[in-house]
Amino acid sequence: MLTISSGHAHDILAVVASGRVNHGDVEGYLVPAIEAKLQDHASIRLWYEFSPEFEGISVAALWDDAVLGLFHLSDFSRVVMIANQAQTSAMVNALACMLPCPVKVFAADEQSQAKAWLDQ
């Protein structure tokens, strides 16, 4: 499941992944949230957090993320990914290599450092 968090700067999209992320989550929540932010900004900053309850992502959702990344390749100015589990961190680091903007991975207990880096 994907949840869009509020309380961040207007050009930051904050997403929390928990449970199992599927095609409907990406198409129903992530894509509309990105497109809504891009109506007001030429580029946005992304906070993508994997909660401790994150269980995995479906193949369809991975494909959707890849297509989304290609379609919005230049729409992100910075991306922060918060991940703790070893398997999640490896996946996140692999995904980070595919984005042309600065991407940094932080552990859950480094959220203040992540916020500071995203705000640079």
Low-confidence stretches: none
Which radius of gyration do the C-alpha atoms yield?
13 Å
Terminal CA distance: 29 Å
Strand order, sheet with most strands = 1-2-3-4-5
Q: Determine the fraction of residues in helical runs and give it as a percent range.
A: 40-55%
User: Count of DSSP E strands?
Assistant: 5
Broad structural category: alpha/beta
Strand content: 25-35%
Task: Label the overall shape.
Answer: globular
Count the DSSP helices: 4
N-to-C order of helices and strands = EEHEHEHEH
Average pLDDT reading: 88
Major sheet size, sense and barrel closure:
5 strands, mixed
Task: Summarize the structure in words.
- Helix content is 40%, strand content 32%.
- The model has no long low-confidence stretch (mean pLDDT 88).
- The protein contains 4 helices and 5 strands, in the order ββαβαβαβα.
- The longest helix is centred in the N-terminal third of the chain and has 16 residues, at 23-38.
- By secondary structure, the chain is an alpha/beta fold.
- A 5-stranded mixed sheet has the order 1-2-3-4-5, sandwiched between helices.
